[in-house]
Every structure is written in C-alpha cells, then in structure tokens.
Design a protein that fits this description.
Blueprint lengths: L1 E4 L4 H10 L5 E5 L14 E4 L5 H10 L4 E4 L6 H6 L1 H21 L4 E7 L22 H20 L2 E7 L1 E3 L17 H9 L6 E4 L11 E2 L1 E3 H16 L5 E6 L5 E2 H12 L5 E4 L8 E2 L4 H7 L7 H17 L1
Parallel strand pairs: 1-2, 1-4, 2-3, 4-5, 5-6, 6-11, 7-10, 8-13, 9-14
Antiparallel strand pairs: 9-12
Helix pairs in contact: 1-7, 2-4, 4-5, 6-8, 6-10, 8-10
Bound molecules: uridine-5'-diphosphate-4-deoxy-4-fluoro-alpha-D-galactose.
C-alpha cells in the first residue's frame, strides 16, 4: 500500500485520484485545510494528526506500506511570515515523526512536497535545481530544512527520497469532481475566478513596482494533474530502484505576471474584472519560473496544460462550486 499524508488537500487529492488506478492507497489527513469529499472513495481514509506517534505506529503496523507520499503542510507564504512557529511545528516537527515511524518500520521510500519558495528571489532567469537555495520566507525555510534532513537520513539510514519543488499549482481535475478549495482563499487564480463569479466586489494586485516586465510578480503556473503525474513517476522511480535520491523542479517552464493572469481569466470567463492596486505582500519573490529540463530527462515527465487550459479547468470547477 501507499500512504499518502495530506491526501485530502488540493494537490494530494489530485494525486490520490490518479494513484487509486494503480495501487492500494491509505490517506492520512487532519482535515485542517483538506476536505473529506475530495478523497477518492477507493482510498482508505484516516482522520488524524501526523504529529501523533501512537497513530503513526498503529498505521505502520496495521498496513504493509511500501512508500509514503507526503503532502501535509501549511503552505501560505504570507501566513508564514506572520506566524513562523506554525510552519516549523507543522512542517518540520510533524515530518520528523513521520520519518521516525518510517525508519522504525523499514519503509524506505518517500516522495516529499517541497516548493519553489526554497529558492528565494531569482535574477530573472529560469530556476534550475542547481540555483542557490536562499528562501526569503519561513515557509520556504521550513521545506528546505526537511530537504536537508532527508539528505542526512539517506546517507545514514538508507532512506530513499524524491523531493519535488512545486511552482504554482493551479487548475482542477477534468472529471469535475475535485478542485481547489481553501478557506479562506488566498491564491491568485481562484480569487480572480471567484470575483468574476460575483463572490467578491474586486480583486487586489499586491505590488506593481517589482523589477518585472509590467511591475507585477511573475509565477510559473502548473496544472495540478500534471503535478500529480510527476508524483506517480517519482513513486515508480523509487519503487523500481531507478532513483535513490533526487530533487526535481515541477513547473511549466513559462512565466506569467499577475496582470497577465488576470487578462487570461477575463478572456476565459468572458467577463471584466475590477482590479485594485495594493501594497506588496510580505515574503513575495518577484520572479519564480522553473527550468523543467531535469525532470523531463530523468522521469520523462512533461507538462501537458498551458495557462488558458489551466484556467478553463479552474473556471469549470469554481462555476460548479458557486452553483452548490
Ligand atoms: N496575488 C495578488 N493578489 C491576490 C493573490 C495573489 O496580487 O489576491 C499575487 C501574489 O502577490 C503573487 C502571485 O499573485 O505574486 C501568486 O500568489 P499566490 O498566493 O497565488 O501564490 P504564491 O506564489 O504566493 O505561492 C504559491 C503557493 C506556495 C508555493 C509558491 C511557489 O501558495 O505554497 O506558489 O511559487 F510555494
């Protein structure tokens, strides 16, 4: 069986939706940001805390777990600046428990969700896995600490891992059953689409004097099902023994500014947005765009969605939610 921690969250649930086609799956999630309804019915679902060593012991002794895929984390840049302790307790502390349970039960493979926020601010070029990691917010730092721990555990205990550094996950599953749900929502594309559906009077652009082509931040938006498939390929590479430890960027390789994202959303929805300029949000890097050459070469993964199609799937999902 494969244990998916955080499998009721946005990215985790899209991965589970794909994984249940191939493997038996157990999802552990405390539903702090995830939703039970997002978890595919074919998976065993356990509601509980990653930080609870007794629960972990019982899971690892009850089920024969071949590998762990670990999505569970707090993941908001702005919130991490306001409350770093939450990030270190949740993201670092709880993950140490998980790794301990894995070692005690001879489970040797983990796919770990990391982030482009480990890089910090880049100088306008595409980010490769060789780019220096200099995170500028506690969220990015909390993920980088785990990357370092994995490297040490690999060397000393033979734990094999693939770290996936995600760029901006976005879009929704084509099947219309699952998609992005955050309470409250802070991410750009869902906020724009919810506004275009009439849920908010306006949207805010956080800063327009960044050193970018139109002054707004540039991000690399990657479809959540493409991201899920990068995890499938990673799991296969670990279980087959092809890879013992690697770090891969998972991004589309294309950058869009906040203004450009708004225009594409307006085009997909056929509606005009009301846009307000606001102060910069703390901890936001100006430019984060992936080089995805390494994961293409090693795992044969490529993104299949471009931004207009990403927004189309998100628009379908948010329109459906608005009708519920
Ligand atoms: N933004 C706005 N207005 C909004 C919301 C966002 O202008 O109402 C801007 C942000 O300032 C940022 C861009 O839109 O420049 C994207 O913001 P998101 O909040 O959608 O995403 P982030 O880039 O901050 O972070 C996301 C994930 C992180 C991950 C990161 C990797 O939340 O977990 O992508 O690039 F680390």
């Amino acid at each position: 069986m494969i244990l998916v921690v955080g499998g009721a969250g946005y990215i985790g649930s899209h991965f589970v939706e794909e994984l249940v086609k191939y493997k038996d799956v157990i999802v552990l999630d405390n539903l702090s940001t995830g939703f039970r309804r997002l978890v595919n019915d074919k998976a065993v679902f356990i509601e509980g805390e990653l930080g609870d060593p007794h629960l972990l012991r019982s899971i690892f002794t009850t089920y024969r777990i071949a590998a762990v895929v670990h999505f569970a984390a707090a993941s908001l840049v702005g919130e991490s600046v306001a409350d770093p302790q939450k990030y270190y307790l949740n993201n670092v502390g709880a993950t140490l428990n998980l790794l301990q349970a894995m070692l005690e039960n001879q489970v040797k493979h983990i796919v770990f969700s990391s982030t482009a926020a480990t890089y910090g601010t880049s100088n306008d070029g595409k980010i490769t896995e060789m780019t220096a990691v200099r995170p500028i917010n506690p969220y990015g730092r909390s993920k980088l600490v785990i990357e370092w721990i994995l490297e040490d555990y690999h060397r000393s205990y033979g734990l094999n891992y693939i770290v996936l550094r995600y760029f901006n996950a976005s879009g929704a599953h084509e099947n219309g059953r699952i998609g992005e749900m955050h309470e409250p929502e802070t991410h750009l594309i869902p906020i724009i689409l919810q506004h275009l559906l009439g849920r908010m009077g306006s949207i805010s652009v956080f800063g327009d004097d960044y050193p970018t082509r139109d002054g707004t931040c540039i991000r690399d938006y990657v479809h959540v099902t493409d991201l899920a498939k990068a995890h499938l390929a990673s799991l296969e590479a670990l279980l087959s023994g092809d890879v013992e430890k690697q770090i891969f960027n998972v991004g589309s390789g294309a950058g869009f500014s906040v203004r450009e994202v708004i225009e594409i959303c307006e085009w997909v929805a056929g509606r005009q947005a009301k846009v307000m300029m606001e102060e910069k949000r703390q901890g936001d890097p100006a430019y984060l765009v992936a080089s995805n050459e390494k994961i293409k070469e090693w795992l044969g993964w490529s993104p299949t969605y471009k931004l207009p199609d990403i927004v189309r799937t998100a628009w379908k999902w948010h329109s459906r939610l608005a009708d519920e």
